[in-house]
Write a structure and sequence with these properties.
mainly alpha
């Protein structure tokens, strides 16, 4: 069972990173009807993957790995978890914006979005990508028992 949950956790994490990378590329393009549809879809995948990472990760912490006491005494784990929650909070900004686009997209129109808003979304997604790098660094430290 431990291997299954580790596999699910890693599969969801790689899916999350792939979806964020696709968002990163799509948001750099003109926001057309097709591009908006893709962003809405990919953001949904990103959100679902993040939810799976969180749920499966917490199940691993509390039931399938070294135990909550071990993880909650690890600075590397706490950093990783804290960054994950922070990224989840800031990722709500693009998600809310993409959800606003649904009405226009369903009507067959590209969303009407100001250039400044697109720039803000790009910056947020860039910060999310950078945050993933720090999460991976903390995960590597944690896996090797570092930064306890």
């Amino acid at each position: 069972m431990t291997v299954t949950f580790a596999f699910l956790h890693h599969l969801a994490a790689f899916t999350l990173v792939a979806a964020l990378a696709i968002e990163f590329l799509l948001i750099r393009q003109e926001i057309t009807l097709d591009n908006a549809r893709k962003l809405i879809l990919v953001d949904g995948i990103y959100g679902a993957a993040a939810a799976i990472v969180l749920v499966v990760g917490l199940l691993r912490v509390f039931y399938f790995e070294k135990g909550a006491a071990y993880y909650f005494s690890s600075h590397a784990y706490l950093t990783k978890f804290g960054l994950f929650i922070l990224l989840a909070i800031i990722s709500a900004i693009p998600t809310i914006e993409f959800m606003r686009w649904r009405k226009a997209v369903k009507a067959g129109r590209a969303p009407d979005i100001a250039a400044a808003k697109v720039l803000t979304l790009r910056k947020i997604i860039h910060w999310e990508m950078a945050g993933i790098v720090f999460i991976l660094a903390a995960a590597a430290l944690m896996a090797k028992g570092g930064w306890m």
